[in-house]
């Protein structure tokens, strides 16, 4: 999913007619101070990262003056929260909070639902995870008919919202649904939804995730990479997303796995499909080799797409090998993979002579694919440690891991000479 930062999500909520606090993002303490001057009242200074628990980590500070806003921003910017460096803070007006609520729309993938679902609770705030189940009210939303205001009112009555506030709340919930649908969201959450002392409902926070397959429909959002990473996107991640972004024929992507480019034993990893990926990880773990990256080429991608993935994987510096992990009897035509891998290896191996390459490929067009690999790599300069296997080893992670390890040991010894 493509995750937006809080300040970005709030801008789209504002455009959808949902009230948000006055404020904007700042990249420096001086800019934070200027925004606080413009707001002219006490403000909240909030770290902008893709991580929860900011309040508990001290990355949200309430201050009374512009000078304090500057100091707060200086103390937050540059820190690291759950692996994410803070590059921006949101400076916004401090709200006079009377009550806090929680509302989210997610996809309910249960067999008897398979539709969007709204959840609402009168117990909003930092510890929503600990709220008892009976205090969270759920409403399945028809993808065809959407959220009708009377359905929202019914849920709010069950939640105990007073009659004189029902329409205020219901209108916000309907606007939230309209934003969810318009922006092709996977998740859209407000926590807390604040009822202020003067009776206004304001989105005090926003978690917004856009379905990655719909990002192309929203260039106005400026989403760089439509994936969820446990870290800031690396250059490899950006290159890998570029493959998928411009070609939707089958799956074909690459993402980083924390490869430090210095330690030995990292393998350029090229699995084919999710189940195959897990088995390939098992093959590597059993022999203490490590994946330099994650990748996938499944869903019958064309050869040009597979080639781009293989070339990125192989081009990583200082890897000690390459594993094409086809640990499944794939129903896609595997000769596309064979042609692509041959082209990539013919370009890379002369520059990385002796690089260990274990190629496991099976499924449709298997015999033809293996013949393409053998013939295409038979006379390539530097292809001295290439081994090719088919269905006889389709689930044999022990064998594949051991063969790769043996070749890696030879390669590492050769490099030390």
Automatic annotation (TrEMBL):
Entry keyword Nucleotide-binding: yes
One GO molecular-function entry: metal ion binding
EC number(s) from the headed UniProt entry: 6.2.1.5
Gene3D superfamilies reported in the protein's UniProt record: ATP-grasp fold, A domain, ATP-grasp fold, B domain, Succinyl-CoA synthetase domains
Domain annotation ATP-grasp: ranges: 10-224
Superkingdom of source: Bacteria
Entry-linked SUPFAM superfamilies: Glutathione synthetase ATP-binding domain-like (SSF56059), Succinyl-CoA synthetase domains (SSF52210)
Assigned keywords, A-Z: ATP-binding, Ligase, Nucleotide-binding, Tricarboxylic acid cycle
GO terms for cellular component: cytosol; succinate-CoA ligase complex
Family matches, as InterPro entries: ATP-grasp, ATP-grasp_succ-CoA_synth-type, ATP_grasp_subdomain_1, Succ_CoA_ligase-like_bsu, Succinyl-CoA_synth-like
GO annotation, biological process: succinyl-CoA metabolic process; tricarboxylic acid cycle
Protein name: Succinyl-CoA ligase [ADP-forming] subunit beta
Protein species of origin: Moorella mulderi DSM 14980
